[in-house]
Each structure stands twice: as structure tokens, then as C-alpha cells.
Specification:
It is an enzyme of class 2 (transferase). By secondary structure, this protein is of the alpha+beta class. It is 51% helix and 11% strand.
């Protein structure tokens, strides 16, 4: 009988023994070391290494409560969802997600490929690294992983079964609260607002009735629009990258929702990097190079997504009515509107909500942080309120320039 026959939270020594027991390649003569490497809010992540061969593997275990609040209880079934979607995404976007070796439903743990040689993208961006291939790579991932999971492409019955398989109520509830509710009405009293911006947030977010109404509309679209199997939390902390390659990982928030949610999250988090670079980089030439690349990449992502989406749609569409002239433009317009909305919602919740973003909180100069947050919130309101007008990358650049100009 194994000690892993019933659930418990593993520590470093447990994780090493677990790998030795579960993976035959690590059993005979393995000399294992282990370190905890996770810095997220929900899970426990360990890297186990065989000293003889240098081979590494990642152990990721789901806890029954979040690491930021013991009051926030979660179903450990999210680990199953994550392992399943990684395998599906590996089929649609080969090589762009880490391989899953095993999922253990008892320990709620996954053994997966170590993304060695890659850096968490948020860390790289905060070091002001430039990734010239990112726009091309992430749009390949987005178009392929999202479109293939829709009923425009899939058999309708198979898609409905997939929707049922990925019902994810606990993680969806977190998004519904942290993204669509609390930043506008602090009903759980856990928003984390930077004190020098408290009056600005009160006036521009909490008291903006039009913004709150739009957020309410978007919340119920998010809850009821089972369009595609989305990652659900696709920020720069969910991407490991180097100059040639990237991995998308951590899709435990996955469920069937509006595909623009993933695209918009990428755009919002890139702009956080712009704000950090604008505030922190001292040399004008270096600052202009990095910040210019970020804006160029935002434009590139939107425009390449549109081009690749149209091409993939025409090649893969199976539904007879979806082939109707004009339907593609109608369908894509809704995705682009959702993209702008999601970029705005993600921007607001990372400044006003309980889960702030490091790109901004790391800005040590109070005056510069105040300015960065006000730019983000102003831009976000434009995204949300005028979401149907964001049709191409240029629209995003013009909105960014407009927001930045308001604060010198």
C-alpha cells in the first residue's frame, strides 16, 4: 500500500518520492532532489531532478484552498481540467504547451514536462527583455487552440459533450467575482487599491454607473456564452518564453467561454509591461526601444489574429450555416468586441481588485506608479465602453496614445 493512496498536501520530500513511485524512468538508482518553485495563488509546484542524468520533471498539486486566503475553498478537480486541456491544446498547437506525463485523481497532482530553458514572461518583461517572435507565436496558439474547440468547426454533439466536461464552477466563480464584480462594487471588502489613487478609483471606477452597467452585461455574457474552450487566465505569468520558443501553461481556469477573453488578457498584460518600462527604464533610448516594441506587438497581435483567424475559419469551418456569406465577419466582430472588453476588465481588476500585478506594484516611485495606474484605468474604460469600435491593431495604439497623453 502506498502513502499516495489517499490525498494529502505534499512537501518537498513527498514530491521527490512521489516522482520515484509514479514514473518508471526515475525509479532505478535515481538520486533525486526537489525544490518548490511555485509562486502562484492556487497550487503547489515542485521541480524534481535526477542528479545522475540531469533529467527534471514538474509536480503540480492542487490544494483545497487558495494560498492567498484560506477562506477561498476550491475543488481539486481543477487539476483534472488542467491536465485534460493541456492534452487537447497539444493537439491543436503542437509544442506550445508542456507535455503531461500523468494525472493522479487521488493526489490531484500532475506530472509534466519541465519548461527548462524558458523564463516566465512577466519576469522577462520586467527585466525589459524583448521577444521579437512573440506576436507570431501567440497568435498561432490563440487561433488554433480556440477555433478548433468551437462548434463552427467541431461536431455539435461532440462540442456539447466537451462543454459538459469542462464545467468549472469554482474557478469561474473566482473570475466572476475578481474580474466582473468586485472591481466595481467592493462587496467582499478585499479590493487592494493603492492609497494615493483611492480618490481616483472612487470617482472613475466605483462611481461610474455606465462602466458598472457594461461590466454587468459582460459578466453574464462570460457566464453564458459557451463559444470556445478558453485558457481562462492567459497572462504573462502563464507563459514561459525564450528568444525562439514559448510554452503556454497553467490553464486551470479553462472552461467554455468567449474566446476574446484570452486574446484581451494577453493585450492587457502586455500593456502592464509597457507601463513598467515607461516608469522604470532610465535611459531614453532603451525606454523607447522596449516600450515601442510592446506597442508594436500589441498592434501585431490584433492584426495577425484577424488574418490567421479568417484563414483558419475558411479552411476548417464545417457547419453549413456558418459558411453563409457574411457570417465570418459577423462572428469575428463579436470576438474582437469581446477582446477589447476583456483587455479593459483585466486592466481594471489588476489595479483595483485583490490580485494586483507585479509590473505595476514593483514601480517604486510613488508618482510614477500613480501615473501608470491612472493611464491603465483610463485606457481600460475606453476598451470596455467602446469595445465595438476596436477593429484592428491601430485602434489600440490610438487609444493607448490618447490615454497616455492625458497624464503628461
Amino acid at each position: 500500500m502506498s502513502k499516495y493512496d489517499s490525498y494529502f498536501l505534499m512537501g518537498v520530500e513527498d514530491a521527490a518520492d512521489y516522482v520515484k513511485e509514479k514514473l518508471p524512468s526515475f525509479q532505478k538508482g535515481a538520486v533525486l532532489s526537489c525544490q518548490e518553485i511555485g509562486d502562484g495563488n492556487l497550487n503547489y509546484v515542485f521541480r524534481v531532478k535526477d542528479a545522475r542524468t540531469g533529467t527534471t520533471v514538474i509536480v503540480k498539486q492542487a490544494g483545497e484552498e487558495t494560498r492567498i486566503s484560506r477562506e477561498m475553498k476550491l475543488s481539486t478537480d481543477r487539476g483534472r481540467i488542467e491536465s485534460r486541456i493541456l492534452r487537447l491544446q497539444a493537439q491543436s498547437a503542437p509544442g506550445m504547451v508542456p507535455a503531461v506525463y500523468l494525472y493522479d485523481s487521488v493526489m490531484c497532482a500532475m506530472l509534466m514536462e519541465d519548461m527548462d530553458g524558458h523564463t516566465m514572461m512577466r519576469t522577462g518583461l520586467m527585466n525589459h527583455e524583448i521577444y521579437p517572435m512573440f506576436g507570431e507565436q501567440i497568435t498561432n496558439f490563440l487561433v488554433n487552440s480556440l477555433l478548433d474547440s468551437t462548434d463552427v468547426v467541431m461536431d455539435h454533439k461532440a462540442k456539447k459533450e466537451r462543454v459538459r466536461e469542462f464545467i468549472n464552477p469554482d474557478l469561474c466563480e473566482i473570475s466572476e467575482n475578481l474580474v466582473y464584480g468586485e472591481p466595481y462594487v467592493d462587496y467582499n471588502h478585499r479590493n487592494n487599491v493603492f492609497p494615493p489613487n483611492a480618490e481616483f478609483v472612487e470617482r472613475e471606477i466605483y462611481q461610474d454607473k455606465e462602466l458598472r452597467l457594461e461590466a454587468a452585461k459582460l459578466k453574464f455574457e462570460f457566464m453564458n456564452h459557451a463559444q470556445a474552450l478558453i485558457h481562462g487566465d492567459l497572462h504573462t505569468g502563464s507563459i514561459f518564453i525564450n528568444q525562439e520558443h514559448l510554452f503556454v501553461f497553467d490553464p486551470e481556469f479553462a472552461f467554455y467561454g468567449p474566446m476574446g477573453y484570452d486574446v484581451g488578457n494577453v493585450i492587457a498584460n502586455l500593456f502592464f509591461a509597457w507601463c513598467n518600462g515607461d516608469a522604470v527604464i532610465e535611459g531614453e533610448e532603451e525606454r523607447e526601444k522596449f516600450c515601442g516594441w510592446v506597442k508594436q506587438t500589441i498592434e501585431e497581435i490584433v492584426d495577425k489574429f484577424i488574418i490567421k483567424f479568417k484563414k483558419a475559419f475558411m479552411e476548417r469551418v464545417t457547419d453549413i450555416m456558418a459558411k453563409t456569406e457574411g457570417f465570418l465577419d459577423y462572428y469575428l466582430d463579436s470576438v474582437l468586441s469581446d477582446t477589447a472588453a476583456a483587455a479593459g476588465l483585466e486592466s481594471i481588476r489588476r489595479i483595483v481588485g485583490m490580485a494586483n500585478v507585479k509590473d505595476i506594484t514593483a514601480i517604486a516611485d510613488e508618482r510614477k506608479r500613480v501615473r501608470a495606474e491612472r493611464i491603465i484605468l483610463t485606457l481600460a474604460k475606453d476598451y470596455v465602453k467602446n469595445r465595438s469600435s476596436f477593429k484592428c491593431g491601430k485602434d489600440y495604439l490610438e487609444a493607448i496614445e490618447k490615454a497616455v497623453s492625458q497624464f503628461g
